[in-house]
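Record type: monomer structure entry
Structure origin: computed from sequence
Chain ID: A
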Amino acid sequence: MKNNIPKKMMGMKLPGNSTVESGEYDVPTPGYGQVLLKMKAASLCGSDLKFIYHEHTDKTGGARYDNVIAGHEPSGQVVAVGEGVKDFKEGDRVVVYHIQGCGYCDECRKGFFINCQEPGRRAYGWQRDGALAEYMVADESTCIHLTDFLTYEDGAMIACGFGTAYQGLLRGNVSGNDVTLVMGLGPVGQAAVILAKALGAKVIGVDISEERMEMAKRIGADEVLKGDDDVVQKVMDMTKGKGVDVAVDCSGSSIGRHRCLEVAKMWGNVVYLGEQGTVTFEPSPLLLHKNLTLHGSWVTSVSNMERLVHLLDRKKIHPGQIITHRFPLEETPEAFEIFATGKTGKVVINMED
């Protein structure tokens, strides 16, 4: 494959002000412990949209570098291997965990590179070149083998959104014993619906967008409710006044988070996944007296993402089913414009040959 690798490639950067900047760049060379990927699929994430495409700020930890190729949801094929690489070879299909930590701190040793606080932490598309290009260098420690059943588009879904949803469900101990409510049916919420069903739960989805409510119905939510002033009572009626076992907030909204606490049953679990925003509540009636456990959850670990790949393979689930829009790399500006409407499922940049 090495002889077919060009010297130049197209890549996309996000300078802020709701713009995408296309450019020509040198194809990178993998260093020690790294692989060069021919990108096959890269999906767009809400954090890219909020904190880079629109604002060009960082509110989630770590400095945002100006001059990097964007995109942190990569899936591709290994086309060159650097020295020291042991588990990957040319031709392997991979999904990439989108952060590389220092490798030595407590969180890195657990595989939670996302939580690394050391200066060496680098996220693809934030502090180092990412997925919205024809080629990308990735550290072997962030690469996960993609099974034959899963497509490259599936891999891009796993790289962030499905991994994040899966970690939240693990935090809430979701199982077949549970009624699980998912508040907010954007891409992460859609992933949470699919995975909660795969874990055996009965799932109630809630949103204010008709388009996203319809998507949740198509992917298998048992019940889908409009997030209006009556939704808490409707959930309580559905559960015979008891409430749900697990409530997962993917909305990031104050009202969504509050309602999750309201609808959770005695001794239930509530998981906050949605980024940013605020919430104010009375701890005594909503948390203490109900003996609730409130979890925060941020992305996932490398090992849990690998477990997720095998769960999806075993259950024969394609995460790509939540994709509503596909674009070639050169149409990335149009892809972001569509994604910014808030009415889409997942938007993917498809670079398959």
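Annotation 1: The chain is about 30% helix and 25% strand.
Annotation 2: The first strand starts at residue 8 and ends at 16.
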